[in-house]
Amino acid sequence: MKNLLLVSICLTLLCCGDDDGLTTNESVIPETEAETENPPVEEEMNLPDITNIGYDLSTSDLEGWELLWEDNFDDDLSEWNIWTGGAFNEELQKYQADNLYVEEGYLFVEQQRESTTGATNPFDATQKSFNFTSGRIESRDLYNPSLQGTLRIAARIKLPAGEGLWPAFWSYGDPWPTQGEIDIMEFRGGITNEHVINFFYGNDPNMILTNPSETTYVHDAGTNLTAEFHVFDMVWAQNSVTVSLDGVVVRTFTSSEFQYIDDLYNKNEKIVLNVAVGGAFFNGMNINIADIPDSSFMIVDWVKVFKQ
């Protein structure tokens, strides 16, 4: 996902911690960008039934890693900032707290066909009409491997299927892209066997130095990623960024192969979970708005951060 407008050549566009965490402040997260109130849970909301199948981390997966922070969604979203209003990249949704539900140890992020109005984006209060609503949360704390050690950021997610759906798990810092962006998982709901991995960097706000045609990696998982839970996992080290799916390495970006990987090492990034609708991620795919689901859910079991 992109936090700010990108040029059309882009092919695709990621916590309250312990004492090792970096606490965000107004200079990093503007007051206009995110609301801090916890979302209400509507009593009559029919959330999908969950069959908790799929991959999960085991004790052996975590040998040598120290837990820095986790959210198992047993309570509320007090450790996250909630994005309100529109976004960027030609996306069709308005983000709002009403589309976020914490129930029985899961976070439900709802995408819904719904006519509404709201701010064009967090930096432009101009009112705009939207045909879809969805949810986006960003961790209150920032993470920086140069200060905290090699980091491992993971989430267990059940993805939604449907044309035009763009769920993502990623990290970035403000002002974008000067603190970098790492896309651990981006997903096109109409192509259920693939997910996308990417990274971005630039020295000046709104200007990328990385080339998406070189950094974008599309992984064919060989299975329907919406059928059960999967663990998307990123290890962020000084000279490499490694992304895994269900414990198996999918792609490693190294500083010897890719420029700017080492520039990411001393940057401060927050964790993001969201479901976008439509947008530049689908350029050239001729998505029909009528084919986008009226309602869908991305379900998150947990998010964890480890250090080494």
The low-confidence runs, each spanning 5 or more residues with pLDDT under 50, are 2-21, 23-37
CATH topology: Jelly Rolls
Radius of gyration, in Å, reads: 18 Å
How many DSSP-defined strands? 20
CATH class: Mainly Beta
Q: Report the β-strand fraction as a percent range.
A: 35-45%
Instruction: Tally the helices.
Output: 2
Report how far apart the termini are: 27 Å
Give the mean pLDDT. 89
Q: Please give the share of residues in helix.
A: under 10%
**Count of individual domains:** 1
Biggest sheet architecture: 10 strands, mixed
Give structural attributes.
2 helices, 20 strands, globular, eight-stranded antiparallel beta sheet, Jelly Rolls, mainly beta, 308 residues, ten-stranded mixed beta sheet
